[in-house]
Amino acid sequence: MAPLNSMPTNVHISTHPCLRAKLSQLRSKTSNARETKTLVHEIALMVACEALASGLQTVSSGTGESPLGYSYTMETISPKVALVPILRSGLGMLDALQTLLPDPVPVHHLGLFREPTTLQPVEYYNNLPYHSPSTSTSTSTSTHPDIAILLDPIIATGGTSVAAIQTLLEWGVKKVIVISVLASEGGLKRAAAEGGTGEQVEIWVGGCDGEVDVRGMIRPGMGDVGDRLFLTIGK
């Protein structure tokens, strides 16, 4: 694990003992696809709890009535958020975030893969709603999220995360919260530098390894999470 004091202030590496233990289990080559899916879900849920406790606030949403007839102040979250999993592996984290959030939120997808030779990200799918709603409608501003929660299980070289962050900031969100399972030290620093001062980007990750190998894979890492989740190892 990389030392915490070497990281930018907008990077947050979990120290939760249960998460650390689950991360160790996820690293094992003996974990099958079902176990991998469960561990990714559980780690994502734990990291997301920490990230959203810091990134969201509660606001009053009216008055409710308990089964005993007492009134109480209802609360919901603010500001508006959208979930953006990076295909494919980010889909393994999606259910965890949808479970954690109190209400359904929009889900947009970004498809990015790393070119094997250059290790540079290539976008092949983007369903962000770039069209601008009519200014005459009352929902023209309410449908656009303030925060995009980017789901990217592995931050290795950082290139894919940087490309996704750039896309989301250009789309118009005020802030990007990146939730990840494992990252390399260099990849984290590269992604954290996107957005200038760091106020536009917060990165929350379950663990951090020191380096990547010549193939751009984290050492010791956990392999290709997408392949492990979808049983496409050796494709």
Give the tags.
alpha/beta; 8-stranded mixed β-sheet; 30% helix
Unreliably modeled segments: 134-142
Elements, N to C (H/E): EHHEEEHEEEEHEHEEEH
Structural class: alpha/beta
Shape: globular
Helical fraction equals 25-40%
SS summary, helix count: 6
% residues in beta strands: 25-35%
- In terms of quaternary structure, the protein is single chain
Largest β-sheet summary: 8 strands, mixed
The radius of gyration over CA amounts to 19 Å
* Span between termini: 30 Å
Number of strands: 12
| Global mean pLDDT | 90
Layout of helices and strands:
Blueprint: E1 11-13, H1 17-27, H2 33-55, E2 57-65, E3 71-78, E4 81-87, H3 91-100, E5 110-114, E6 121-126, E7 147-151, E8 154-155, H4 159-171, E9 175-184, H5 185-192, E10 201-209, E11 211-212, E12 218-219, H6 225-230
Parallel strand pairs: 1-10, 4-5, 4-7, 7-9, 8-9, 9-10
Antiparallel strand pairs: 2-3, 5-6, 11-12
Describe the structure.
With 235 residues, the protein is α/β, with parallel strands linked by helices. The protein has six helices and twelve strands. Helix 2 (33-55) crosses helix 3. The longest helix has 23 residues, at 33-55. The protein starts with 10 loop residues before the first strand and ends in a 5-residue tail after the last helix.
Summarize, please.
This protein has 235 residues and is α/β, with parallel strands linked by helices. It has helices at residues 17-27, 33-55, 91-100, 159-171, 185-192, 225-230; strands spanning 11-13, 57-65, 71-78, 81-87, 110-114, 121-126, 147-151, 154-155, 175-184, 201-209, 211-212, 218-219.
